[in-house]
Amino acid sequence: MPKVFILELNYKRQFTMVEKLFYVDACIYLNLWQEEGDEKLGIPYWKSAKDFFERYDNDDSVIYYSGFLLKELRFILSAREFNKKSRLFRQSQNFKKIFMSKEEYNQASRIESELNYEISFFDIIHMLLARKSNSILVTRDKKLLGIAGEYSVIAKKPEELL
Asked: DSSP state, 23?
């Protein structure tokens, strides 16, 4: 293969590969792991979550998570269940941990106050970390879906990304 063709192929690949970036809220993991959802309303929540993770389990996708997300899951799940389920974050190459600065933490606190504490502090943190990582926030939280745009964050339900 001529060198010019190889360079052209590499050049095209470099500029056509688009990463899909996501920050997934704790509720989506819980939908999947606890098989949540009302089948009478359509596809169960856990099935949409499963389909989402399967669709984006590839080299072109990154799913961010944080210590705040792990703390939230650790609080809700039993210790044994958390230890078993949280292996996902360490074993998959698609998961990358993101960290929050003190300044961003303080901003989350200010936003929580501005919103009259109607949205949980952890959900605000998830929203800000999605913005920091230029990711789509994947959530089912109706209030969070409603205000994310005001903070320059795209927020979607998993089924909207299938």
From this structure: E
* In a domain? residue 134: yes
Render pLDDT for 49-96 as a digit per residue (tens, 0 to 9).
Answer: 999 999 998 888 999 999 999 999 999 999 999 999 999 898 888 999
CB 31 within 8 A of CB 37: yes
Q: What is the pTM of this model?
A: 0.85
> What's the CATH number where 72 sits?
3.40.50.1010
- Ranges of H-type helices in 17-120: 26-33, 45-55, 67-76, 79-85, 87-91, 102-114
Terminal CA-to-CA distance of the chain, rounded, Å? 38
Domain that residue 129 falls in: 18-161
Sort 61 into a burial class: Cβ within 10 Å, 0-12 / 13-18 / 19+: middle
